[in-house]
Design goal:
Blueprint: H1 16-46, H2 51-80, H3 82-99, H4 105-132, H5 141-169, H6 174-209, H7 244-272, H8 282-299, H9 303-326, H10 332-339, E1 344-345, E2 348-349, H11 352-379, H12 386-412, E3 415-419, E4 437-440, E5 445-449, H13 454-461, H14 467-479, E6 489-492, E7 513-517, E8 522-525, H15 531-540, H16 544-556, H17 564-592, H18 598-620, H19 628-648, H20 650-657
Antiparallel strand pairs: 1-2, 3-5, 4-5, 6-8, 7-8
Helix pairs in contact: 1-2, 1-5, 1-6, 2-3, 2-4, 2-18, 3-4, 3-6, 4-17, 4-18, 5-6, 5-11, 5-17, 7-8, 7-9, 7-20, 9-12, 9-17, 9-18, 9-19, 9-20, 10-11, 11-17, 12-17, 12-19, 13-16, 17-18
C-alpha cells in the first residue's frame, strides 16, 4: 500500500498520525488494564484460588504478554512489517477478550493464550511506528512518546472504573459481573482496531515525511540494498568508545552467554532435587535462550552501533527492577486494596479496581508537565541524560514501597481477639495467615494481627473439615455439572458433621439451590456448583466452635483496614518514577537501536517487563505466607541496590550512548 502525499494541513507540532496511534493504543490499553484490574480478584473472589495460585496465573499471563513482543518484533522486521503485525495483534486480542466473557475454565485459558499472542504482534510495533514518524535528532521525539504514553494512561484510567463498575453492579451473581467487565475490555479492543484501520493513511503520511517509509516495509534479506546490510548502518563504520565503556561493550555479549548457562542450570538443579516444580524451569530457560540469542546478535553489530546497542541491554536490568516493583499494582497491591484498605477514601466509596485507575490519572495530570520539563531543559542545553532519568525512576519506586511498608506496619499493629476454649488439634497456627494468628491458653483468646482475608479464612477452616464430608462435596460438584432450571438435579448427603448448618439458603445462593431438605439431607440444584458455593459448603463442614471463632475474627478484623491514602501516595511516587523511565525508555530504543534491529530490540526492551512480571509474580506467591511488611520491604531493598549500581555506571553509559542524550 502506497502512502498518500503529505498534507498541508498536518497539525503544527506533531503529525496527525501520532493521534491515530494515540487512540489505537488508548483503546488497546483500555482492554488490557480492564482485564488486569479484574484478573486476580476474579481468581480469588470467584474461582476461590489462594494467593499462591492466583499469583502463578498472573505471573504466567503477564510475563508472556511482555515476552511475545520479542517474537512479534522479529516477525515484523523480517516478514510482516509493523502495520500488518498491529492489525493481526489487535484482531487476536479482540477474540481473546470476548472469550473471557465465558465462564468455563477452558474458555478462560484459551482467552489468555489469544491475548498473549495478539499482544506479541501489537505491542512492539505500535511503539516503533511512533518513532518512525520522526527523523533522528528531532527534538519532538521524547515529547511525542510522552503524549503517546498519555493515550495509554487515558485507557488505563477508564478501564478499571468501567470494568470495576460492571463487576460491582451487573448480574445476579459476582461471576456475571466479572464477565460483563471482561466483555467491556473486548469492546475496547475492537474500537482500537477500527481506529487504526481508518487512520493508516495518516500514519503512513507521517512516516513518509520523516523519510522512514522503507523501514516499515518488510525486507527481502537477499536484496543487495536491504538495510540488513552492515554497509547501510553508518554507526557501524565509526569506532566505538574507549576506557571502561569499551570494556563493557566488549564483555557484555559474553556475560549474556554466562548467564544463559548458569541461570537454567540453577533452576534445573532446584527442580531435580525437589526444591521447585519443573514448570518453574520453563521461563528461566526461555529467558536464557533469548539472552544467548541477543549475545550473538550484539556480536554482529560493530563500532558505535555496538556501544549504543549495549546500553539498551544494560539499562534492561534496571528496567526489570523498576517494573518488578511497579507491576505489583495488578497483583499484591490489588489484593491489598481489596482486603486491607478502607473502601471510603476522600469521601468516596472506592473498590479495589478504582485504586488501579489512580496511577493512570496521575499520569494524565503530570505527563504534560514532565514533557514540558524535558523539552524546556533540552532547549536550554540542560537535557537530563537517559541513564539519570532511569536512576531517578529506581529511587522513586523504592520510595513508593517505603510508603507501603509504613502502611503495612500500621495495619499489622491492630490486633483483634475472640474467645475460644482451645485450638483444634489439626490446626497449626504458625502455618496459617503468614503466622499472624496467636492463641493465649491463659485467657483462652484467639487473636490475629491485621486483616483476616477470606482466602485466609478458607485455609484456617479446611484442616478441621472431615475428609468424608469433603469427598461428598466433591461428589456433589461432579453430580450437578449439567444442572439447569429445566433440568434440576437432586443430591443426597450420606452423612453430615455434627452441628451442620447448610449454607446455601440465603440470597447469595439464588439461582443455584431450589430446595434443601435438612431431615433427608437432600439438596436440589438448578445450576452447576460454583467455586464460591463450593467454598461455602466446605467451610460449613468445619468444627462449629472453630468456625464461629474464625468467622467472628474475620469480621472484627476489618477494623485493621488502613486508609486508602497510603496506596494513593505510593502510586503517586511510583508514577513519578514511571514518567522518568517508560516514555523515555521507549524513545531511547528508537534512537539507539540499529535500523535492521529496530523492532527486535524494542521487543527485547519490552521483555524487561516479562522478566519483571515473572520474578514479581513469583514473589507474589509468597503473599499470605509472609507478612505484608516483609513483602513490601523486598522491593525497597532491590530498588536500593539497583540505584547504587546505576549511580556508579552513569559515566560509562553516557560514553556508550555517544551523541544520543
Amino acid at each position: 500500500m502506497s502512502a498518500p502525499p503529505a498534507s498541508a494541513d498536518t497539525p503544527k507540532g506533531h503529525p496527525r498520525g501520532l493521534y491515530v496511534l494515540f487512540f489505537t493504543e488508548m483503546w488497546e490499553r483500555f482492554s488490557y488494564y480492564g482485564m488486569r484490574a479484574l484478573l486476580v480478584l476474579y481468581l480469588l473472589n470467584y474461582l476461590q484460588f489462594q494467593p499462591e495460585d492466583s499469583s502463578a496465573v498472573y505471573k504466567w499471563y503477564t510475563s508472556l504478554v511482555y515476552l511475545t513482543p520479542l517474537l512479534g518484533g522479529f516477525l515484523a522486521d523480517r516478514f510482516l512489517g509493523p502495520r500488518v503485525a498491529i492489525i493481526i495483534g489487535a484482531a487476536l486480542m479482540s477474540i481473546g477478550h470476548f472469550l473471557m466473557a465465558f465462564e468455563p475454565l477452558p474458555f478462560f485459558y484459551t482467552a489468555l493464550a489469544f491475548l498473549v499472542v495478539g499482544n506479541g504482534f501489537f505491542k512492539p510495533n505500535i511503539s516503533t511506528m511512533v518513532g518512525k514518524m520522526y527523523t533522528q535528532g528531532d527534538a519532538r521525539r521524547d515529547g511525542a512518546f510522552t503524549i503517546f504514553y498519555m493515550g495509554i494512561n487515558i485507557g488505563a484510567f477508564l478501564a478499571p472504573v468501567v470494568c470495576g463498575w460492571l463487576r460491582q453492579n451487573m448480574g445476579s451473581n459476582p461471576g456475571m459481573g466479572f464477565h460483563y467487565g471482561f466483555a467491556a475490555a473486548g469492546v475496547g479492543m475492537v474500537f482500537g482496531l477500527v481506529i487504526f484501520l481508518w487512520g493508516q493513511k495518516y500514519v503512513l503520511q507521517a512516516v513518509t515525511a520523516a523519510g522512514n517509509l522503507g523501514d516499515i516495509i518488510p525486507r527481502q534479506p537477499s536484496s543487495p540494498s536491504s538495510p540488513a546490510s552492515p554497509a547501510m548502518e553508518p554507526d557501524e563504520q565509526r569506532p566505538g568508545t574507549e576506557g571502561v565503556g569499551a570494556v563493557i561493550a566488549r564483555v557484555f555479549p559474553y556475560l549474556l552467554f554466562v548467564l544463559a548457562t548458569l541461570v537454567p542450570l540453577r533452576f534445573i538443579y532446584l527442580a531435580a532435587t525437589g526444591q521447585a516444580q519443573w514448570t518453574n524451569v520453563i521461563m528461566p530457560v526461555a529467558f536464557a535462550v533469548i539472552g544467548a540469542w541477543m549475545g550473538f546478535t550484539l556480536l554482529t553489530v560493530k563500532g558505535v552501533a555496538r556501544d549504543k546497542s549495549t546500553v539498551i541491554f544494560l539499562l534492561f536490568t534496571f528496567s526489570v527492577l523498576f517494573w518488578m516493583a511497579y507491576e505489583q499494582a495488578g497483583n499484591a497491591l490489588n489484593v491489598w486494596a481489596e482486603y486491607n484498605t478502607h473502601r471510603s477514601t476522600l469521601g468516596m466509596e472506592l473498590s479495589a479496581e478504582y485504586f488501579q485507575g489512580a496511577p493512570a490519572l496521575y499520569i494524565i495530570i503530570f505527563a504534560p508537565l514532565f514533557a514540558m520539563m524535558w523539552t524546556a531543559l533540552a532547549r536550554r542545553g540542560r537535557e537530563i541524560p537517559t541513564a539519570a532519568k532511569i536512576l531517578a525512576a529506581v529511587v522513586l519506586i523504592g520510595a513508593s514501597d517505603v510508603v507501603m511498608v509504613a502502611a503495612a506496619t500500621s495495619e499489622d499493629a491492630t490486633v483483634t481477639k475472640v474467645s475460644l476454649a482451645g485450638v483444634p488439634q489439626q490446626v497449626k497456627l504458625e502455618e496459617l495467615n503468614a503466622g499472624r494468628f496467636s492463641y493465649d491458653p491463659a485467657t483462652q483468646e484467639l487473636s490475629v494481627r491485621g486483616v483476616l482475608a477470606p482466602f485466609a479464612v478458607t485455609n484456617a477452616l479446611k484442616p478441621t473439615v472431615d475428609q468424608a464430608y469433603l469427598k461428598q462435596v466433591e461428589a456433589l460438584e461432579a453430580a450437578v455439572e449439567t444442572a439447569a432450571p429445566e433440568h434440576p438435579i437432586t443430591f443426597t448427603f450420606e452423612s453430615l458433621p455434627p452441628g451442620y448448618i447448610f449454607p446455601l439458603t440465603d440470597k447469595q445462593a439464588e439461582g443455584l439451590v431450589s430446595q434443601w431438605d435438612a431431615e433427608a439431607r437432600k439438596v436440589t440444584l438448578v445450576a452447576p456448583l460454583s467455586a464460591v458455593a463450593k467454598a461455602r459448603l466446605v467451610g460449613a463442614g468445619a468444627q462449629p466452635e472453630w468456625r464461629q471463632a474464625i468467622t467472628s475474627l474475620a469480621d472484627k478484623s476489618q477494623a485493621a483496614r488502613v486508609s486508602g491514602l497510603w496506596l494513593l501516595l505510593s502510586y503517586l511516587l511510583a508514577v513519578f518514577g514511571e514518567l522518568c523511565i517508560s516514555p523515555v525508555g521507549l524513545s531511547m530504543v528508537t534512537k539507539l537501536a540499529p535500523v535492521r534491529f529496530a523492532s527486535l530490540f524494542m521487543g527485547v526492551f519490552l521483555m524487561s517487563n516479562a522478566v519483571a512480571q515473572y520474578v514479581g509474580g513469583s514473589l507474589g506467591e509468597m503473599w499470605g505466607r509472609i507478612v505484608p511488611t516483609q513483602y513490601f520491604a523486598i522491593f525497597v531493598y532491590t530498588s536500593a541496590v539497583g540505584a547504587v549500581a546505576l549511580l556508579l555506571l552513569q559515566r560509562p553509559i553516557r560514553k556508550l550512548m555517544h551523541e544520543v542524550k
